[in-house]
Design a protein that fits this description.
Belongs to the aspartate/glutamate racemases family. GO terms for molecular function: glutamate racemase activity; identical protein binding. This protein is an alpha/beta fold. The chain has 2 domains: 151 residues, 3-Layer(aba) Sandwich (Rossmann fold); 112 residues, Rossmann fold (3-Layer(aba) Sandwich), CATH 3.40.50. 46% of the residues lie in helices and 17% in strands. The strands form 2 sheets. The chain has a 6-stranded parallel beta sheet, sandwiched between helices. It has a 4-stranded parallel beta sheet with strand order 6-5-7-8. Bound molecules: ligand I24 and D-glutamic acid (DGL). Ligand I24 binds next to α1, α7 and α11.
Length: 271
Amino acid sequence: MDNRPIGFLDSGVGGLTVVKELMRQLPHEEIVYIGDSARAPYGPRPADQIREYTWELVNFLLTKNVKMIVFACNTATAVAWEEVKAALDIPVIGVILPGSSAAIKATRHKKIGVIATPMTVTSDIYRKKVESLDPSVRVTSLACPRFVPLVESNETGSSLAKKVVYETLTPLKGRVDTLVLGCTHYPLLRPIIQNVMGPDVKLIDSGAETVRDISVLLNYFEINRSRELNHKQDVFYTTAGVASFQTIAENWLHQSISVEHVSLKEALSDE
Ligand code: I24
Ligand code: DGL
């Protein structure tokens, strides 16, 4: 048993799609979340900058005595997961490996598509992971730079969203039987994506797959939080304004939560 919280990091609020899955699958676990909304989105940024920012988020979570760190962001995982995992002595989980192995399980004709931010696609990490697990699978990746702005402007069900998703995904239609949603925001566009790709294409939500892996890991290392503790206090930190984070998060998670502002410079210089 290990009653310490699980730490989540993300470039902003998108990682809350992973948190929502955790709350559904593992409601007993306590959460510390940090979202770097002041510097979001990470997707269009250069790799070195993303690496530096991600380390700041990791170091902040380490000051919160977490038992595990979850990279609830595909872009941060693509750039920095391997090196952070190698440097820490607690488990570090990224969203990319769980999504990759779920796609391999799901594909029937070994044709997997991945949609993600420009940086995740540039890193080619999904193709590398999938091919390392099964070299006979073909991976086609597509950057969808217009999808995050669509979600963030409340357009998830609009006719503009349908038009943009249709135009963007056309090159993948008929070419893949399984499609990985390789960005935290994309589950919010899932109905439209499914509609454009057709009912036979299996969509993989990397975040949901990641929570299944977290569960396996907690059991394997016997580090679940005790069932006898019935009170838990999740805390969500944001590097930008508390009010807008709180509005989005409470609306998404359907519960009231505790949100605090953090300035990473100050938090990390107190060490
Ligand atoms: N969804 C996301 N980010 C936003 C947004 C949104 N604004 C409206 N909706 N803004 O991500 C990002 C910039 N903010 C973040 C907070 O600090 C200031 C800057 C996707 C959310 C994933 C859980 C639409 C919206 C919403 C509530 C729930 C879901 C949703 F308002 F898509
Ligand atoms: N969280 C990011 C991801 O999953 C999307 C938003 C961003 O670009 O920062 O790739």
